[in-house]
Write a structure and sequence with these properties.
With about 425 residues, the protein is α/β, with parallel strands linked by helices. It folds into two domains: about 160 residues, Alpha-Beta Complex (Aspartate Aminotransferase, domain 1), CATH 3.90.1150; about 250 residues, Aspartate Aminotransferase, domain 2 (3-Layer(aba) Sandwich), CATH 3.40.640.10. It is built from twelve helices and 15 strands. The strands form four sheets. The chain has a seven-stranded mixed beta sheet, with helices on both faces. Strands 1-2-3-13 form a four-stranded mixed beta sheet. A two-stranded antiparallel ribbon has the order 11-12. β8, α7 and β9 form a beta-alpha-beta unit. The longest helix has 22 residues. The chain is globular, with a radius of gyration of 21 Å. The structure holds 4'-deoxy-4'-aminopyridoxal-5'-phosphate. The site of 4'-deoxy-4'-aminopyridoxal-5'-phosphate has 16 residues, from α4.
Length: about 425
Amino acid sequence: MADIAGLMARREALLGPNVAAFYNEPLHIVKGDGVWLWDADGRRYLDCYNNVPHVGHCHPKVVEAIAVQAATLNTHTRYLHEGILDYVEKLVARFDASLSAAIMVCTGSEANDIALRMAQAATGHTGIIATDMTYHGNTALVSQLSTRKPPIGGFAANLRHAPAPDALRRPSGDSFAEGVTASIASLAAEGFGTACLIVDPFFANEGFPTLQPGFLDQAVAAVREAGGIIIADEVQPGFGRIGTHWWGHEKVGITPEIVTLGKPMGNGHPVAAVVAGHETLSAFRNAFGYFNTFGGNPVSCAAAMAVLEVIETEGLVENAREVGAYARERMRALAGKYPFIADVRGSGLFFGAEMVLDDTNTPAGNFTARVVEGMKARGILLNRLGKDYATLKIRPPMVFSRENADLLVDTLDAVLAETPLVP
Ligand code: PMP
């Protein structure tokens, strides 16, 4: 038997307190393959949560690319190497022609930290706007974009948090644009000006509300009118996860000046990037003289290149579109049976269902927590997010099949039937 209590005690002693672990009884995972994970007792789980192993846990092509390059050379970008050039060339070919160059880093947080400073260097303004329910990472600057835990000493004076969209309770998009416009006015009044709006165009951490194409147009126009630029954080929706497009900003119909990438980019190998136009990127390079010891090293680039190739050769964007649509259709059928499912939403293999307690759409956070635990008990891993954490968050590796979707929805049916709807 896995010694969960013993491992938790060692973590507390060696890593300090308040280290996040999923589930009431945390899992001790020891092996992964495709969409499956195994715990130390040999129990198999269907992974419906992890987006980082984008092309499947331990994909042999990615493992091989890493191993071959690690056995040949791993240095840094102060030596010339084709690996980073070949990768960036292939990556930017997936974007609008205006987004033609990239800086490679190791985490989404680093990418967003650079993006914010790039926006400031490119515009000469310092004001930054984000939503009030977001998360973009953990550097001193980027962590202030999140309102979950206020920073010691309070938020920086040049930050504004605009109310996040909420399609269920506030279906009109106007309030988001209004919040952004008010932020622009207040940044102008205090002399910061607007450098950027940083936004995940799929609003993943905000609970991925269903938004119409054009939803962001008004806010984007207001930012540009004020001399600012748009940063699209594609760390969650990017690399085809949403099925209909490679990038979230394409789905919502905007072309940002800067795009940040991370999580799925190396299938678990720590690699991330900032993509921008040459001029915008040069403003940052000239202002800061940036170097990142591990960013863009040959092994990272080999891993990232293998991921791009597998997405293409295995048709994983099409798979996300097709299997995601099938899974949502089956979940909508469940919504007919369980009226507390207020909304089934998402795109491609990023989807979920929001649970409510009553007709006024009071979010059922505790109920959803019990559903997540019930799913784990039956061997399915997923999680929750959004308002009061009442939305199931389902985001499996992109090799998820119809058969996997059937197992997910059949199990959800059983768990919903046995979980009492109480606050
Ligand atoms: N942006 C978004 C939208 C994220 O969800 C996250 C992480 N959850 C990050 C950035 C930060 O990425 P990392 O943990 O690699 O620093």
